[in-house]
Write a structure and sequence with these properties.
two-stranded antiparallel sheet; alpha+beta; globular; 32% helix
């Protein structure tokens, strides 16, 4: 997610990545000096520079819309989960068609 000028969150253009459970890797970490308060890092001060390898899941319009919220109600979370499930299921369908 990235932050717009008005402070709202937007999904970035990078695809989602499904990483196998139990994956352990060493990754470089980016530290944003602008995210420190009184010399202490905030929870948004650190980020990995790249995700571990995994299966790519592109953002559909409906998934992007469901993910684009600064906070989520119970209904919004259910919609987001449904959209993620749909995107992942389509990935499985594509992989089985390749075999």
């Amino acid at each position: 997610m990235s932050t717009d000028d008005d402070g709202s969150l937007e999904p970035i253009d990078e695809p989602l990545r499904i990483i196998d459970g139990g994956t352990r890797e060493e990754r470089p970490v980016h530290v944003d000096g602008g995210r420190f308060t009184f010399g202490l890092p905030t929870k948004r001060a650190f980020a990995v520079e790249d995700l571990p390898p995994g299966r790519r899941v592109d953002w559909s319009t409906s998934l992007r819309t469901a993910a684009n919220a600064p906070t989520y109600s119970n209904e919004a979370i259910e919609r987001l989960v449904t959209e993620l499930d749909t995107a992942i299921a389509s990935l499985r369908t594509l992989r089985s068609a390749e075999r």
